[in-house]
Amino acid sequence: MKKNKVFRLSLGWQIILGLVIGVILGVVFADNKKFIAFANGLGSTFINMISMIVLPIVVSSLIVGISNMGDIKKLGKIGLKTLIYFEVLSTIAFIVGMVISNFSHLGYMLDLSQLSHVDISTYVKTAKSAAHNGLGSILMSIVPSNFFDALATGQMLPVIFFSSLFGLGIAAIGEKGKILITFLQAVAEVMFKITGWIMHFAPFGVAGLIGATVAQLGLASLKPLALFIVMAYITMIFFILVVLGITSRIFGFRIMDQLIVVKDELILAFTTASSEVTLPRLMQKTQKLGVDQAISSFVIPTGYTFNLDGSAIYQSLAAIFLAQAYHVHLSISQQITLLLVLMITSKGMAGVPGASFVVLLATVSSIGVPVSGLALIAGIDRLVDMGRTAVNVAGNVTATLVIGKSENEFDQVKHDAYVASFRNK
Description:
The protein has 425 residues and is mainly alpha-helical. The chain is built from 20 helices and no strands.
């Protein structure tokens, strides 16, 4: 006799259910400080659990992948190609955002008197602090003076740099290094197993995060900026389906295949507004999609810092939108200048908390918009952040496949079989 199958919701549906419950609880407990504190605590616990395992996975997987590659010239070529790809796609994302914001003219429809003041002092403080660092300081900080300090403070780029060198060192000593490879491979597998356990808590973390957001904002406060939210999401969907779609097609992939395979991770990124929570599973899934371990272990953590297509779209949309709201007319030359400023400041703020909003703080004054004007969209930043985070994740998946294919470190048969397994579900 056949056993009856127990009906179980997939992780994606569990997270969506958590999102719905969180919204309902946020409406019911609007402005309830005890609920907000509890919900924030629930969400923060989930984010912390994921953060706990990200760096061990990056270190172990990257060292194993690079040691198997064993070629410093090849690593340098992959690194350069990856950074060029990130820069090209980010620039396209900026341009897409600016073009759509220019054609929509939504900023002119905004009645500034409808919007209450929102405190942005925390962002201002962060922007001032980050401005002293700049792009040059970030590039200099890639080489860590203390690897363990970089681990403790969660600095991704120094960790990637050290892990890459360590992997090359293991490859250089040959047979003696195999015991380290075996150990680190086991560490990676253990961390991926723990990731699976933590994901069971994801729906509760999502419910807490979105519940606290809705309880603090209130649905009524969203009405004046509803058009901006809609415009942002339409632009982001366009970027995924058209820009990433064309990019994927050029290299022989289909964007819908990617979206089907990582749909749970996209939902998780969207509901938590955190790319970090998806990093372990993306590394695992891109390898199952046929990309070599060395490529996925390098491209995805690097993209976490540099490949922020969703953030680029938001920054350019918001800058033009605010200029229109204040009736500041921008000529073509001024908009080109704005594009260049955004490209520079977005790299200089990489890894800064609330980076997208901080970039705007460092940029809008160059087009005549008062910094205080950012209070207009600060209240809805979290809701737009959910969408731009999902775009960042989708962009990193495409980037990993493209770099893998271009380096001939890609298994098409493995890719097709893994995609087929999702279509048959």
